[in-house]
């Protein structure tokens, strides 16, 4: 069998021989006109496998004159090469062809030839290249996918089961559309991804895949949902009996609306009252409070929070009462209220401090979150 280098030499000699014959014929017959010549050979041919595709690349010779290229391939068990593609578009001095007609477990050999479009003469690359197509064994699908709903963002996190594959490389994070369309959001080598395109009040579905070092992608993980909602920190209200104009509070959907209302306003979701027995949350006409407070360390456990962090991720869907609730610091309270749309919404406040200002007026400093989606009890994590 002719080797790659010998094959190139033979093809070049063949091209020169045909050229000489053509010139001789031209000298014998005034009607025979030689057009074209010997094209410059492709340079630095290389090939690599990734994700079910063999990519063949080569560089243009310094004297390349715009000729197209032909790509040839064979399995090493085959006796002959096969013409598989003609490439006419190159950019920046380089050319590329992707071969998808490959079979795992096979080794393929490639070479490239430049072809003169007028004479049809080909000049092959100086050598051929060999690529082994590995078995397409993808990592296991990522496990334990969870969405943490934030303010105008969703944080997707998952377990590290797929990382245990010896050839694990990275993850791909997808958003699933209403008609099951799939949108690639990004890639990461950690078990977490922040979607900053998610908007408050809209629900988003996500799934994750794992990819190995050869580009083989796993099956999709389970789908997880998240619905961002506004949250605010360092809000405060005063005791209704001391400063009634600043004692009422109404949950709002944006920074633009002031949540502080008159303590006797019919729009209030609650107001603060202070007496000799303590600090009290007093629900408004269209609000009810869950009768049990939850000891928490944060309004929401942020991305990367320590294992001791605790929050209220989902609101109870029943058991709410309209009675006053005595407040404690470092405690979260869940409310069910009617929003501006006339629908039921869930909200949570976390009391940071209960005390008095320099005028000895009672004050509560707190953080809060409000679910914009009617009827959705998710306050922190996805549904």
The Cα radius of gyration reads: 35 Å
- Low-confidence segments, given as residue ranges, are 1-34
Largest sheet report: 6 strands, antiparallel
Mean pLDDT: 88
What is the count of helical runs? Answer: 1
Percent in helix:
under 10%
Q: Encode the helix/strand succession as letters.
A: HEEEEEEEEEEEEEEEEEEEEEEEEEE
The count of DSSP E runs of length 2 or more, i.e. the number of strands, is 26
Q: In what range is the share of β-strand residues? A: 35-45%
The N- to C-terminal Cα distance equals 65 Å
Q: What is the SS-derived class?
A: mainly beta
Q: How many domains make up the 3D coordinates?
A: 3
> What global shape is seen?
elongated
Summarize the structure in words.
This protein is mainly β and about 375 residues long. It has 3 domains: about 130 residues, Immunoglobulins (Immunoglobulin-like, Sandwich); about 80 residues, Immunoglobulin-like (Sandwich); about 140 residues, no CATH class. The protein has 1 helix and 26 strands. Strands 16, 21, 22, 24, 25 and 26 form a 6-stranded antiparallel β-sheet that branches. Strands 3, 4, 6, 7 and 8 form a 5-stranded antiparallel β-sheet that branches. β11 and β12 form a beta hairpin. The two termini are about 65 Å apart. The N terminus is likely disordered.
């Amino acid at each position: 069998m002719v080797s790659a280098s010998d094959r190139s030499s033979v093809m070049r000699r063949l091209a020169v021989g045909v050229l000489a014959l053509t010139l001789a014929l031209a000298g014998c017959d005034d009607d025979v006109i030689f057009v074209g010549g010997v094209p410059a050979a492709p340079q630095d041919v290389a090939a690599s496998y990734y994700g079910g595709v063999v990519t063949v690349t080569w560089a243009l010779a310094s004297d390349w004159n715009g000729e197209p290229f032909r790509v040839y391939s064979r399995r090493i068990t085959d006796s002959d090469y096969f013409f598989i593609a003609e490439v006419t578009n190159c950019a920046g001095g380089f050319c590329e062809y992707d071969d998808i007609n490959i079979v795992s477990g096979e080794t393929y050999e490639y070479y490239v030839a430049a072809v003169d479009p007028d004479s049809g003469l080909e000049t092959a690359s100086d050598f051929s290249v060999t690529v082994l197509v590995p078995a397409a064994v993808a990592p296991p699908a990522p496990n334990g996918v969870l969405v943490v709903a934030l303010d105008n963002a969703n944080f997707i996190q998952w377990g590290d089961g797929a990382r245990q594959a010896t050839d694990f490389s990275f993850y791909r994070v997808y958003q699933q559309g209403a008609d099951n369309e799939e949108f690639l959001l990004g890639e990461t080598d950690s078990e977490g991804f922040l979607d900053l395109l998610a908007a408050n009040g809209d629900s988003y579905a996500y799934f994750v895949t794992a990819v190995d070092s050869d580009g083989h992608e796993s099956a999709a993980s389970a789908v997880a949902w998240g619905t961002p909602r506004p949250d605010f920190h360092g809000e405060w209200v005063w005791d209704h009996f001391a400063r009634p104009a600043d004692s009422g509070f109404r949950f709002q959907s944006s920074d633009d609306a002031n949540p502080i209302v008159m303590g006797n306003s019919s729009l209030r979701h609650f107001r603060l009252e202070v007496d000799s027995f303590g600090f009290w949350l007093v629900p408004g006409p269209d609000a009810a409070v869950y009768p049990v407070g939850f000891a928490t360390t944060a309004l929401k456990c942020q991305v990367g929070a320590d294992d001791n962090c605790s929050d209220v991720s989902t609101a109870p869907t029943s058991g709410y009462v309209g009675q006053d609730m005595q407040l404690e610091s470092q405690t979260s309270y869940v409310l069910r209220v009617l929003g501006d749309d006339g629908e039921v919404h869930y909200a949570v406040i976390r009391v940071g401090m209960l005390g008095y200002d320099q005028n000895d007026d009672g004050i509560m400093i707190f953080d809060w979150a409000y679910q914009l989606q009617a009827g959705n009890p998710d306050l922190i994590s996805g549904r």
